[in-house]
Design brief:
Length: about 800
């Protein structure tokens, strides 16, 4: 029995409720309980430190109020190795959020309860009684140690020392690869009180955690070795953590119900009011609360620009390199004109992080402040998360992260995309001015995410290729409709077009202005979110008649408009121009880098690899047209089709591009004068990727077949596709010239795919299996004829090998 009671107590402490026992019949007043020498921290709640114990004063006015807890890493843990796939673990990272509330419980206990959110049903709804009969989940239950008429005092010492997610890193254990919590090495180190929040600061220690890649002598994860040599347990870690308890507004901001046709991050809320016969989860957009000050409402309604009551302010980390700071600020401020279009001036801005003397309340764990932090990491990335009120979608603050090694990535990007047009791109390392302009581009994109915007990978498809080579057009429109696309540079511009360096970088586009207006436009005469949604729905339907305002979710594998790193409405035209620029780079690579490289040609090898990777991306952009279809993500009332196959002409154009730039060997990409120095060879570095790409091309027959079933023979057919594949891959069999190693590789890969695919269930429809069998017979016959004209050893052995593969396959049928 004693053992059972002990287990129950442990379960209550760590699973559902922690009862701190003390009778409440003889409670002293808070004034009598708190000693004169106790330390007091004043804020939304008062905290007292007395005799090494922490006490929290909870006023009745804050009962049943929603409190958001935000867990921030104030100081990261020094580690010998860090998993490069994990982006969190640095100072300023927000790693967990949750909401709770205090309520009175059984026999004067004070409960810390899990908060729940939903759209309440009407009084007459059948759901009302059901919801009233639900019991709130208790996280911790406290017995007060002192009591006043309108407040109670509770001992939170044990709670502060525990590993509960409202105070520690337990909510991010997987992301941080943490081991068991070590309470003997953890301790509170301070409390800070603010008008709307309370921050508990502590050191949190954890034992050895998950398995991570073992670094090699260069500090990078080893590749290609056996698992025993390449992985290790993370060591013990210690962190300084800020747990912010932020009092959410008593009245949540009005919801803005999401529209799938406008790219906003969204959350779901259960709606008991919309449909009396069905409970629904409805999505709502995440956005800041941008409203005019009460005294400026009349000016705002007259169309005058006014400053919002609560502007969005980003503070730039003091650890940011000095030369980048003005560009970070400019990247944030770039959004000001977009907000001016909907009536707000100075709605968003950036400032340098204040000193303690300038603003003693500023800290990275204070949820009242948004920051752009600079991370000392080898990760080449940046990201923009938000702290959100889950009841309404209101963005409360944001912690944009910029990792140090993004500068290396930007340098490679600029070289491979712009060196043909900008002579300054050929001088490595790049100048601080160029690096700053690119960093500004990154900040503008990431801040766009923190305004609620998702990626808009259709933005780069908005303009035709000829237009984005014209100065007048680009000056007015940019070369894409959205900065939220991965639209890095104007890589189709040619040297003769004469673009200046600053014209090669993207800027905020018309889609971005449209999306911000959708999310932040105010409707003073509307009574609720439903009225807002109805007006906005009609407006979006009207705007989408212009393709610049189309938005599609990322991740569509068949719509060629939805791609990253691409440009222009025709990937074949864009790719042809881009490859012309790559050829210029390869012709001059050795000269451009000779003064900036080491004896091992490290820079040359890295830039050669970057050029080869970019070439592969151009092939992939084109490939998406083959078997592609357009899905407009439209509402029924718009009268648009959500399934339109790419035209036959475009698919034929794409196949011609694949023939020219993939079936035919890109010898210019691997010149001997470069590969002799870098040892970057086709067979060693990229042959496997090119072989794998053949599979991606080959299996397009499935997507083409689907289009054929949907719309009939008027589009590109599977039969045409296989004919084009054969013509492109085996056109050299009739001549006496030797078949190159590159072509032999592609032909062998293609035949292997044919022999495998004929029995694939995906081949049974549209007589595809029959077409594949015809291709096999066609290749076999061509090899037999070719053996009569080929005289070189390699070609003949290759042709005999293919013939043997087919013969063995036929013998096994």
């Amino acid at each position: 029995m004693k053992l059972l009671k002990k287990l129950l107590l442990i379960g209550q402490l760590f699973v559902s409720a922690s009862i701190i026992a003390q009778t409440t019949s003889e409670l002293p007043s808070i004034q009598k309980f708190v000693k004169s020498n106790a330390s007091k921290y004043t804020g939304v709640f008062n905290v007292y430190l007395q005799d090494d114990k922490y006490y929290l004063e909870v006023p009745d006015s804050l009962l049943n109020r929603d409190i958001l807890t935000m867990i921030v890493i104030n100081k990261g843990s020094a580690q010998v190795s860090r998993d490069p796939s994990k982006r969190f673990g640095f100072a300023g990272d927000v790693v967990h959020e949750a909401v709770f509330k205090f309520n009175k419980g059984f026999k004067e206990t004070l409960n810390m309860e899990q908060a729940q959110f939903y759209i309440e049903p009407t009084k007459q709804s059948a759901y009302e009684a059901s919801l009233k009969n639900k019991v709130a989940s208790i996280i911790v239950a406290f017995n007060p140690v002192a009591k006043d008429a309108k407040a109670v005092l509770i001992d939170i010492t044990n709670t502060l020392n525990s590993d509960m997610p409202f105070l520690s890193l337990s909510g991010a254990k997987d992301e941080l690869s943490l081991g068991p919590y070590q309470s003997n090495l953890s301790r509170p180190i301070g409390v800070a009180g603010f008008a709307n929040s309370l921050v508990f600061r502590s050191v949190r220690a954890y034992g050895a955690g998950a398995v991570t890649p073992k670094p090699n002598a260069m500090g990078s994860p080893e590749q290609g070795s056996d698992q025993g040599n390449t992985q290790q347990m993370t060591g013990p870690t210690s962190w300084e953590v800020g747990a912010s308890w932020y009092l959410l507004p008593a009245k949540p901001m009005r919801l803005r119900f999401a529209d799938k046709r406008v790219g906003y991050f969204a959350r779901a809320i259960r709606d008991y009011a919309q449909n009396p016969n069905n409970i629904e989860d409805r999505n709502y957009a995440t956005r800041w609360k941008i409203e005019p000050k009460p005294q400026d409402i009349d000016k705002f309604n007259r169309g005058e620009l006014v400053e919002p009551a609560s502007p969005i302010v980003y503070y730039i980390d003091k650890n940011t390199p000095a030369y980048l700071r003005p560009y970070f600020i400019a990247g944030v401020n770039a959004w000001q004109k977009t907000f001016e279009r909907i009536g707000f001036k100075n709605a968003i801005m950036a400032k340098m992080e204040p000193t303690a003397e300038e603003n003693p309340d500023f800290s990275i764990d204070n949820p009242a402040y948004s920051v752009i932090s600079y991370k000392p990491s080898t990760t080449a990335n940046a990201y923009g998360p938000m702290v959100i009120d889950p009841r309404s979608g209101q963005i409360l603050s944001s912690h944009v992260a910029v990792f140090h090694n993004i500068t290396d990535l930007l340098q490679r990007w600029y070289f491979v995309n712009c060196a043909a047009n900008d002579p300054a791109a050929r001088k490595l390392p790049l100048s601080e001015e160029i690096m700053g302009r690119m960093a500004q581009m990154v900040i503008t994109h990431e801040v766009g995410h923190t305004l609620g915007l998702r990626h808009d990978f259709a933005g780069s498809h908005s303009y035709d290729v000829d237009s984005v080579r014209k100065h007048s057009f680009v000056a007015k429109n940019g070369f894409g409709a959205s900065i939220m696309d991965y639209l890095r540079f104007n890589y189709v511009a040619q040297p003769e077009d004469g673009f200046k360096a600053e014209e090669l970088l993207p800027k905020i586009g018309v889609y971005d202005d449209f999306a911000i207006e959708w999310g932040y436009k105010i409707f003073p005469k509307h009574q609720n979110a439903e009225q807002d949604a109805e007006v906005l729905k009609r407006w979006v339907s009207k705007m989408r008649k212009d393709p610049r305002f189309l938005y599609f979710p990322e991740g569509d594998f068949f719509d060629p408009r939805i791609q990253s790193e691409d440009m222009g409405s025709n990937a074949m035209k864009a790719g042809t121009l881009a490859i012309k620029n790559l050829k210029v780079m390869m012709q001059n690579l050795a000269v451009w880098l000779e003064d900036n490289d080491d004896d091992n040609y490290t820079m040359m090898k890295r830039m050669h690899s970057a050029v080869a990777s970019r070439y592969n991306e151009y092939l992939a952009h084109v490939l998406k047209n083959i078997g592609g279809r357009y899905a407009d993500n439209a509402l029924t009332e718009e009268g648009r089709s959500n399934y339109v196959p790419v035209s036959r002409d475009l698919q034929k154009e794409a196949m011609a591009f694949i023939n020219d730039y993939y079936f035919n060997e890109p010898q210019w990409l691997f010149p001997k004068e470069i590969t002799d120095k870098t040892r970057f060879t086709f067979s060693g570095e990229v042959a496997a990727d090119y072989g794998a790409f053949m599979g991606r091309v080959f299996y397009k027959f499935s997507a083409i077949g689907r289009n054929q079933r949907m719309v009939g023979e008027q589009r590109y057919t599977v039969a045409e596709f296989f004919d084009d594949m054969y013509k492109g891959l085996f056109s050299d069999l009739n001549s006496s010239e030797a078949i190159s190693a590159y072509r032999r590789m592609l032909q062998q890969r293609y035949v292997s795919l044919l022999l495998t695919a004929v029995y694939n269930p995906a081949s049974y429809e549209n007589d595809v299996a029959v077409l594949i069998k015809q291709q096999i017979d066609k290749v076999a016959a061509a090899c037999e004829i070719s053996l009569k004209v080929k005289t070189d050893k390699n070609s003949r052995e290759h042709l005999n090998a293919i013939a043997d593969m087919i013969s063995q396959w036929k013998g096994k049928k």
